[in-house]
Design a protein that fits this description.
The protein contains no helices and 10 strands. One of its GO terms (biological process) is nitrate assimilation.
Length: 103
């Protein structure tokens, strides 16, 4: 059973950008917003060398890690071939212009 937590209004996540949700345990979560105003949530850590995905470039339904250019799928957290690896993903929803995260 999911425990939905209100995070922020959608407008507080920049288009083609990210916002970080800090957590005391379990690692930070990056919320990404693409050009279509879709919102995705992943651990803020690239599976390659742990780079901060929240500082990467959002394009379509992917984010490019700022350290070594790996592309990570925003829908599933999977590295795009030929790279291999994944990072954790979280359920997220937007209702009435508000972003909610399942923790």
């Amino acid at each position: 059973m999911s425990n939905w937590k209100h995070i922020c209004p959608l407008d507080e996540i920049p288009p083609l950008g990210a916002r970080v949700v800090r957590r005391p345990t379990g690692g930070d979560i990056a919320l990404f917003r693409n050009a279509e105003d879709e919102v995705f949530a992943l651990h803020d850590k690239c599976p390659h060398k742990g780079g901060p995905l929240s500082q990467g470039i959002v394009h379509g339904r992917k984010v490019t890690c700022p350290l070594h250019g790996w592309n990570i799928g925003l829908e599933d957290g999977q590295a795009v071939a030929p790279d291999v690896g994944h990072c954790g993903r979280f359920e997220v929803k937007v209702e009435d212009g508000q972003v909610w995260l399942a923790l």
